[in-house]
Please model this.
Amino acid sequence: MKKIVDLTYDIHEGMLTFGAPWHPVVSITQLGRHDVEGRETRSITLGTHTGTQTDAPLHFVRGGKSIEQVPLEKCVGPVTIFDFSHLKENEVVTKAMLLKLKFEKKVIFRFGWGKHWNTKKFYQNYPFFSEDAARYLVSKKIDLLGFDTCSPDDGRTKLAGDLLGSVEDSPIHKIFLEAGVVLLEYVANLDTLKDLKGWIIAALPLKIRGGDGAPARVIIFK
Model:
């Protein structure tokens, strides 16, 4: 192993989280203190989809596998990294864009969106995947899909009211998760990569029993 790159955002109070009631903000409270208890300990409150994270099928599939049931073989192995940073805001990744590409079972898309991390822009107008593109990737038997945005779905969709839980709610998530594809979201530091070839990924989520997803420590190495 000659090189390791950390693709994980730090977890800290005040960090960016999705602004919805089902995504709590991060709270970290110091409990043990060197001057009192002779040690430091902390309590941490965070959601299962905080920072760099993996989605389990259970996130959108009723009765789907939870995060501790996801085979680790899907989380570790050779990965193909594509540079799609030329896409404009709200531009869609189409099936036609993918047809001539060759890739491993694990794929990461670099959209250049990391520059918006910790700003409101991160959740607005990012590139996303079409249904045809998602179904094509599934047909190619990928088992992990990562990206440096917050979601594979169109961010302009208002997640409220009757839309929640409907067929139109996060359809791209559902295509991938129903097929057992691990979604790796909020991938950090892709903009620092000059060489996109020959990497192996390890994207290991916290082993939360019954979890619909979990923060993950993600690295690539070669």
Summary: DSSP finds three helices and twelve strands in the chain. The domain at 4-8+48-221 is CATH 3.50.30.50 (Glucose Oxidase; domain 1). The longest helix spans residues 131-139. The helical segments are 95-98, 131-139, 171-178.
